[in-house]
Design a protein that fits this description.
Layout: H1 4-21, H2 25-31, E1 37-42, H3 49-53, E2 60-65, H4 75-86, E3 92-98, H5 102-107, H6 116-129, H7 131-135, H8 140-160, H9 163-172, E4 176-183, E5 188-191, H10 196-204
The structure holds zinc ion.
Length: about 220
């Protein structure tokens, strides 16, 4: 375990190293916020967004919660998506799940988990949607991995269902939505290669919000 006081010492060292490499680093950092990417991932401490992508401060706008869920009624993620698109002009939105996800594992257990129940229901609903495919996988570990992947796909669809994404894509051809999985066991980042344009077209049969009035 890292002692609490060590964190500030670490931070001072990190800032000094950054400044040694580029004396204007923090001046430039403070001058603008213009990330190209919005990353929606899991809160799991083993999946740090910037590090797994090898990018620094200022490169990625980040939202994290248990199980990288994009819930329709979650004002938090909704505001992040809206702000990322409208104010930061992000070009890509990434939903990143990971194997060995505690949230997904908990959702696979049909038990009462108290306050976590309404949150995990988002992932339990993904299981229900794909029950036939998942139940056909005899190996439990493999079924767990597959639910991680399917949860990423469904959360990508939830991003695509938003008016903010549909409107921005109509007007400027971006953002593009991507689904990723981080394989903790190998340190590998996988692109699930979601066909954004095809998915958008499918979604719009039921959720076409392009004609919605623009928000301020
Ligand atoms: Zn997780």
């Amino acid at each position: 375990m890292i002692p609490y006081d060590q964190l500030f010492e670490n931070s001072r060292r990190w800032a000094a190293e950054r400044t040694a490499l580029d004396p204007d680093f923090f001046e430039k950092l403070a001058a603008e916020h213009d990330p190209e990417y919005l990353y929606i991932g899991c809160s799991d401490s083993r999946v740090p967004a910037n590090e797994i992508m090898g990018v620094g401060p200022g490169d990625v706008f980040v939202h994290r919660n248990i199980g990288n869920v994009v819930a329709n009624t979650d004002l938090n993620v909704g505001a992040v998506i809206e702000y990322g698109i409208v104010n930061l002009n992000v070009q890509h939105i990434i939903v990143c799940g990971h194997y060995e996800c505690g949230g997904v594992r908990a959702a696979m257990q049909p038990r009462d988990l108290g306050i976590l129940n309404p949150w995990l229901r988002n992932i339990r609903d993904v299981y229900r949607l794909h029950e036939a495919e998942l139940e056909a996988i005899p190996d439990e570990a493999r079924r767990y991995d597959r639910l991680v992947e399917l949860n990423v796909v469904e959360q990508c669809l939830n991003v695509i269902k938003t008016a903010a994404v549909q409107r921005a894509y109509l007007h400027r051809g971006a953002p593009i939505v991507h689904g990723w999985v981080f394989d903790l066991r190998r340190g590998q980042l996988r692109d699930l290669h979601i066909d954004f344009v095809a998915r958008l077209r499918d979604i719009q049969k039921l959720y076409n919000l392009m004609d919605a009035p623009p928000t301020s």
